[in-house]
Amino acid sequence: MASVSASNQVNTLCLGVSEPISTAWPTEFDLIKTRELEKFLADCGLYETREEAIRREEVLGRVDQIVKVWVKTVSRAKGFNEQLVHEANAKIFTFGSYRLGVHGPGADIDTLCVGPRHATRDEDFFGELHRMLAETPEVQELHPVPDAHVPVMRFKFNGVSIDLLYARLSLWVIPEDFDISQETILQNVDEQTVRSLNGCRVTDQILRLVPNIQNFRTTLRCMRFWAKRRGVYSNVSGFLGGINWALLVARICQLYPNAVPSTLVSRFFRVYTQWRWPNPVILCPIEEKCLGLPVWDPRRNIKDRNHLMPIITPAYPSMNSSYNVSWSTLRIMEEELQRGNEIVKEMDTENTGWITLFEPFLFFEAYKNYLQIDITAENDVDLRNWKGWVESRLRLLTRKIERDTGGMLQCHPHPAEFSDTSRSFHYCYFMGLRRKEGSAAKEGEQFDIRLTVDDFKNTVWMYSSWKRGMWIHVCHIRHKNIPNFVFPGGVRPPQPMKVAGEQGRVLKPMGFNSQKRKRDEIDAGSHPRESTSLVENVKSDLQGEVKLEQVEVNVGDSLTKVICSSENSSHNSIEVEGYARCSQPLGAASSASGSLSLGRALVIETTSEPLVHQCSSKEVGESQVGLVDQVQNFDVGKRVNCVQSSTVERGIAAAAAAAAAGQGFSPCCSSLFQNGGLEELEV
Q1: Which residue of 200, 357, 496, 538 is most buried, as measured by CB atoms within 10 A?
Q2: What angle do CA 327, 670, 333 make, to 5 degrees?
Q3: What distance in Å separates the CA atoms of residue 538 and residue 575, rounded to the nearest whole number?
Q4: Burial of 370 (0-12, 13-18, 19+ CB in 10 A)
């Protein structure tokens, strides 16, 4: 439980890149709300039992023993004498949620194996150690991923999930009291080792940079749970992962060093609702050491200028931990932060409970149109490998659609996968589709993303370990045709009632017949070349009234007209159907799918705007707290002048300005961040 005492007071001047917004101590109301929050989190089952904690420690001890035996085996095989074999050592470190102390029941343990220079990654780690683990009876589901951005070996040890990374240092012997925080260990190592070491070094640095570790942990546990419930917890999908949320929470702890978790949660939403991306979130000054490793610097690195939501790691070399974020996922997270801010403000005034904040996002009720991505393989091992590869590429589909539609069509990827139990070795992913908020539909406007999807699939087919039976299919489905297996228990929830129009009439389908949907046959061959269609739908209700729009979409040999409505930023959605002439599905698993034929030209009749729009911050009225009206003079060493209207406003301004001034760029979307196009992520 959070407590207030003089011993908790810290020297806040040494934490963060700006002065705190507030150093006020919590009130009795804050303490009561914190106790309620902690009880709520406990009732949700977010804390593991003592028995589970002991089992994890035992598993880590066994893994440490295995890697020590492994490094001695490798040393002996390479001809080292017995004395050197005896001195040979490898050491296990933890990082991520387990090291931060916010893991829950069943969570995996992020671990790092640090080995000497003669133990190589490809031959020894993914070779000999993989063989040893495969022969260990307690190890199940062993899955090496040597081609990942950060190579990893995944497995379960006595039921505990382990993600094992490897760092090959330039040392001949790894001492048992090895300090991973020292920067000299980065000398003469490859990029994969630097990235592998970064997880541990960042985690330890975060714990050093927060004023109260216990308050940080409770707040982070809360925000992780909220992000998962609202569907915005997934780095691979283009949202934010565990390290990103940890860095965001740590910055709030720096800005409110004496606040308890209930206050920190409230201030989290207040600050980041008003944060002007791409201003970076930075916990400490970015330093360039003599080692010459690249650090995040948009003044020098062109790719860094394209980052939309930079959240910078505090350990050298500083990197952007959120480079996967796209325009679509940034928009979704901004909307969720706004929703959270409105709820916590009501909690402060009406003394309501926490449950409303954590209501799950109803993904399959939120959109009219979706993309469905199905993957299959011939066996469990192939499916696990194929699944990992496809998941790492799904974010590219979002970016390609944004690129090819000029940013007018936005995607909402669901962070989880689904499986149809009636099919063997099968997984399915979904993306919600909608027009860019605030853009008006034009009569006769068409979206045709078949070539975009083909481009994405060609990227997927580049998998170096592809085997016969690995297959991917992408198709468009409407809301009413979502397969039942995605719903809890396989039962579709009842459909909402039709919404009355302005004249009191009910909006009904106009000649729509779902039995007339059909799909074109899939081309034969080892790499099926299916195509995808999009029935583009608009849902925005900016003025609180139903506004009907009509859009024509080229769907292969058919024409689909959709009467579209709009939705406002508060997620008020209105389902309005139109009429369509489509084709019949092929196969039971895709009975709800519509598909495009190949060979038709890409049709994009949207707008003359640039492909990627310049970042625009949310404009908040003067009655809303916390926005800076103007920030000027952002050259290094110059004073930052802020026009401000409140204490919180000044604090947020100082935080953003300090981060910007330290890097010599403007937080207000200066020309440094103007992107002429959207580059793909490195793959």
Answers
A1: 538
A2: 25
A3: 10
A4: buried
Asked whether 252 and 3 are in contact (CB, 8 A), the reply is no
At 453, phi and psi to the nearest 5?
-70, -40
CA 84 to chain centre: 44
Non-local (6+) Cβ contacts of 214 within 8 A are 2
Structure tokens at 540: 């925005």
Block residue for tokens 């409105």: 342
Q: At 264, which helix (H) or strand (E)?
A: helix 261-273
Name every residue whose Cβ is closer than 8 Å to that of residue 123 and which is 6 or more positions away in sequence. Answer: none
pTM exceeds 0.85 for this model: no
User: CA nearest 537: which of 591, 477, 618?
Assistant: 477
The 3 state secondary structure assigned to 480-530 is HHCCHHHCHHHCCCCCCCCCECCCCCECCCCCCCHHHCECCCCCCCCCCCC
Q: Which of 192, 166, 171 has its CA nearest to residue 182?
A: 171
pLDDT digits (tens, 9 = 90+) for 47-86: 999 999 999 999 999 999 999 999 999 999 999 999 999 9
Give the pairing of strands 558-564 and 549-555. Answer: antiparallel
Beta bridge partners of 359: none
* Residues 634 and 666 sit within 8 Å (Cβ to Cβ): yes
